[in-house]
Design brief:
single chain, mainly beta, Thrombin, subunit H
């Protein structure tokens, strides 16, 4: 973590830098067994202006301030950072990005009215870049979740957040520029994100992306900056679709662990060089986990999955999304291209469970 009010993590490729506000995980206790539920949109909604969306939701937004003591050149120094978040429940559950609170020793949540609260990290899922905080407060105004699957390119959206760690509760307006963008973040994390041209800067991470009904449809978490192809990069930002994380967030709040369907393979898109030799589009199997549902079904490394239950699979993202939409125990018929032949393989969806609890650092071995 750098000594700055808004530390930034950068990932560069061909002169492009993907920027995220970062600090990180503080070991705290899990408050198990909450009976709180998230708020979802009701029927009969009315579209609003940007000013109306802001007025409706600004009291549900928060700034997130983090600090950690780090050792630099033998001296202990305080590293500080800032991000954004929003209220999930009236009794003080807060959602932000995992990379905002990663490594933090202390977390403070600042409300729109200026009130400050010490926050506890309840749990997180680093693979989805989400973290749930808890403050001791009552009668808060939770944000309402919308349906990110209903977004269309060109639709108006607004973002509310804490750019630069100082310009808190700022609104920017734009459109949905693209959907289902596969973006590689640090730590080998790959997410399929909403692309928007809303102006997003360091400190916006963890804030909400709203549709014009005032519903949260995304969590802003990254932007591209720098230059490429001889031109400056502007207005390319990303947000996590809420439909991909709502179930995860509810599991963090209620169980402290995250269960998800899986079949036990790692996949990537079919390389263009293989397409030249007649290999079809699909999800290229790079590895099959031992004793997994995939291995039991007979899937093999270098298989190319081209369809699932008759639905076309054009890349790795299609398959991941399809599997995650299924229930544990479901049977799935995969169409597989193997060494020039097309076969069908039936896989029974399994379950993987991982802890969402913050863990104390283990002592170093002597």
């Amino acid at each position: 973590m750098k000594n700055t009010s808004s530390p930034v993590r950068r990932i560069s490729a061909v002169l492009l830098a993907l920027m995220l506000v970062c600090s990180a995980l503080a070991p705290t206790a899990f408050a198990a067994g909450t009976d709180q539920t998230l708020s979802f949109a009701a029927a009969g909604r009315t579209a609003r202006s940007a000013a109306e969306v802001y007025a409706q939701n600004v009291n549900s937004m928060v700034s997130v301030e983090v600090s950690a003591r780090v050792n630099m050149f033998g001296y202990e120094t305080l590293s500080e950072g800032a991000g954004s978040g929003f209220i999930l429940t009236p009794d003080g559950y807060i959602l932000t990005n995992y990379h905002v609170v990663e490594g933090a020793d202390s977390i403070t949540v600042v409300m729109y009215n200026g009130e400050k609260y010490d926050a506890e990290l309840i749990g997180y899922d680093d693979s989805n870049d989400v973290a749930v905080l808890k403050i001791e407060a009552e009668d808060l105004t939770p944000a309402t979740f919308g349906d990110s699957d209903k977004l269309v390119v060109g639709e108006d959206v607004v973002a509310i957040g804490n750019p630069l760690g100082t310009l808190s509760f700022s609104l920017t307006k734009g459109v949905v520029s693209g959907l289902d963008r596969e973006v590689s973040l640090s730590g080998n994390m790959r997410l399929r994100l909403i692309q928007t041209d809303c102006v997003i800067n360091s400190g916006n991470s963890g804030g909400a992306l709203f549709n014009m009904y005032g519903e949260v449809v995304g969590i802003t978490n990254a932007k591209l900056s720098g230059s490429g192809y001889g031109a400056a990069i502007e207005s390319i930002a990303f947000a996590i679709p809420v439909n991909t994380i709502v179930n995860v967030v509810e599991q963090i709040m209620t169980k402290g662990e995250i269960s998800s369907p899986y079949i036990g393979i790692s996949v990537m898109d079919v390389d263009e060089s293989l397409r030249a030799y007649g290999v079809p589009q699909g999800a290229d199997v790079m590895e099959v986990t031992k004793d997994s549902p995939a291995e039991e079904a007979g899937l093999q490394k270098n298989d190319v999955i081209t369809a699932a239950d008759g639905e076309s699979i054009t890349g790795s993202g299609d398959l991941v999304k399809y599997v995650h939409a299924r229930a544990v125990g479901d049977k799935m018929v995969l169409t597989v291209f193997r060494q020039g032949q097309t076969i069908e393989v039936t896989v029974t969806i399994g379950e993987t469970v991982k802890s969402a609890l913050p863990e104390a650092e283990e002592p170093a071995e002597e």
